[in-house]
From TrEMBL:
InterPro entries for this protein: Crypto/Photolyase_FAD-like_sf, Crypto/Photolyase_N_sf, Cryptochr/Photolyase_FAD-bd, Cryptochrome/DNA_photolyase_1, DNA_photolyase_N, Rossmann-like_a/b/a_fold
GO terms assigned for molecular function: deoxyribodipyrimidine photo-lyase activity
Protein name according to UniProt: Deoxyribodipyrimidine photo-lyase
Source species of the chain: Microbulbifer spongiae
Transmembrane segments: none
PANTHER family: CRYPTOCHROME (PTHR11455), CRYPTOCHROME CIRCADIAN CLOCK 5 ISOFORM X1 (PTHR11455:SF9)
Keyword tRNA processing on entry: no
Keywords annotated in UniProt: Chromophore, FAD, Flavoprotein, Lyase
Photolyase/cryptochrome alpha/beta domain ranges (all copies): 8-141
């Protein structure tokens, strides 16, 4: 058993875990430190290079505003540091720790390769300064690397991964951690400094920035981004409301006109809620069962495990963080790089109503229904044969819930380039998908008013309509071409 720490001053380094409840690093730090401060480091240049867009970053910063208010109730000041790149973080964090007389730094692990390299460098520099640092596994139900085949190898297929993970999870209860204890006022009445000059124009401050280079985030103080209310309180409210209809999830989740999904993905991505809290809610409504019981609950748990699977893959296969396909042979596919056609797809001007309505939903609300994500990804990568990485990047630039692991995994699944991918001959027919999952055209009419007057049959594959574009590609011919291209890889 590890000896419990006893430190005078600790620092919690927040990243993609912007909540107070069930936060491993925050809770552990509050248990072993007499006094506690928190830090968030904004790296807008790196975020931009990773494709993160305005909505995602604005939502992150809005969540940070709410977190700061909640931490104040526990006498934990939240500092912000605005620097350009990850490469500057180790030295900056060392300087912060020394200036604030910090003895230990606590953080929750992040798994894309650049984030892992940053964290290793931080560990090295802090250890050389005699500052204790601990990273916790907090973003997943089980730590990446802990779910293995009988031969000790990582799983490459979802179903056996899920089976083993559920066996391991069943061995211990899921108990979300409480909020941290209320910390004493520093040194019997003095206060943590409001700000510190760090040199070279960098200031450590308790004021969350309202502007960042490369980003438009000036509306974050209101807590609303693209119609999404940010923060931990809102995440808990949504979780509770979803729990009231979760039993209908399997039956209704594929119909975009219905409000039948949890819409918790932005909160999971920013860390305003944890995957453990989600699993705990589902289990509490399913008599503690991970499988069986309510089909709706079991189906939603399975969706949580898909998130888990993709995160584990990032650690086991670093090439996924480097723009490479899981199936390396698919690099030989002669992708089409037609910017004009791609822009039509991005604007929702393909002439295929369900695709266009989905893209309008994304561009207007920074979110897209999961069934629609598969339809538009299949249309781009199969019917149009445009490189899936273009679509992956577009999603990251526009989604408010742009989780790298899930976005990469979903695109590679649809494009048949990834682990556990859709068979190459599976190409979503956008017209039949539309008829099946938006049968009366309710969703299409909501986002494409030009088609509102069409009947329920015509609206899925309309005749020429003034103000609405003609189809930009032959859907049937595109399907045949994609199948032939993939078949030649065999």
């Amino acid at each position: 058993m590890r000896r419990p720490l006893s430190l005078a001053r600790g620092l919690v380094w927040f990243r993609s875990d912007l909540r107070m409840q069930d936060n491993s690093a925050l809770y552990r730090a509050s248990q072993c430190c007499e006094y506690l401060a928190a830090l968030f480091i904004a790296c807008p240049h790196n975020w931009k290079s990773h494709g993160e867009g305005d909505a995602l970053v604005a939502f992150r910063m809005a969540c940070l505003h709410e977190l700061q208010t909640r931490l104040q109730t526990r006498n934990i000041p939240l500092y912000c540091l605005n620097i350009s790149t990850f490469s500057q973080v180790p030295k900056a964090l060392q300087q912060v720790a020394l200036r604030l007389k910090i003895e230990g730094v606590f953080a929750n692990a992040e798994y894309p390769i650049n984030e892992q390299r940053r964290d290793h460098a931080v560990r090295d520099i802090l250890c050389k300064s005699g500052i204790h640092i601990e990273y916790y596994s907090d973003r997943t139900l089980l730590p990446p690397g802990s779910v293995r085949t009988g031969n000790g190898e990582p799983y490459k297929v979802f179903t056996p991964f899920k089976r083993t993970l559920l066996q391991l999870c069943a061995e211990s209860a899921v108990n979300p951690l409480p909020v941290p204890r209320k910390m004493p006022i520093l040194d019997g009445g003095s206060h943590w400094p409001k700000w510190l000059e760090m040199g070279r124009g960098v200031r450590l401050t308790q004021k969350i920035p309202s502007q960042l280079p490369h980003y438009s985030i000036d509306n974050t103080v209101t807590g609303m981004v693209k119609g999404w209310k940010a923060g931990e309180k809102e995440a808990q409210k949504r979780l509770k409301l979803f729990g009231e209809r979760i039993t209908r999830y399997q039956a209704e989740r594929d119909f975009p006109a219905l409000d039948s999904t949890s819409r918790l993905s932005p909160y999971l991505n920013s860390g305003a809620i944890s995957i453990r809290q989600c699993a705990y809610m589902a289990l509490s409504l399913n008599d503690g069962n991970w499988q069986g019981g309510s089909e709706g609950i079991a189906c939603w748990i399975s969706e949580l495990i898909w998130r888990e699977f993709y995160t584990h893959l990032l650690v086991d296969f670093p090439r996924l963080s480097k723009g490479q396909p899981f199936k390396l042979e698919t690099e030989r596919i002669p992708w089409v790089y037609n910017q004009k056609l791609f822009d039509c797809w991005g604007r929702g001007e393909t002439g295929v109503p369900i695709v266009d309505a989905a893209m309008h939903q994304l561009n207007e609300s920074a979110w897209m229904h999961n069934r629609l994500r598969m339809i538009v990804a299949s249309f781009l990568s199969k019917n149009m044969l445009i490189d899936w990485r273009w679509g992956e990047r577009y999603f990251m630039q526009h989604l408010i819930d742009g989780d790298f692991a899930s976005n990469n995994g979903g695109w590679q699944w649809t494009a048949s380039t990834g682990t556990d991918a859709a068979p190459y001959f599976r190409v979503f027919n956008p017209y039949s998908q539309s008829q099946k999952f938006d049968p009366d055209g309710t969703f299409i009419r909501r986002y494409i008013p030009e088609l509102a007057s069409l009947n329920n049959r015509e609206i899925h594959n309309p005749p020429p309509v003034s103000g609405y574009p003609q189809v930009i590609c032959d859907v049937g011919a595109g399907r045949k071409r994609a199948i032939a291209v993939f078949a030649r890889l065999k």
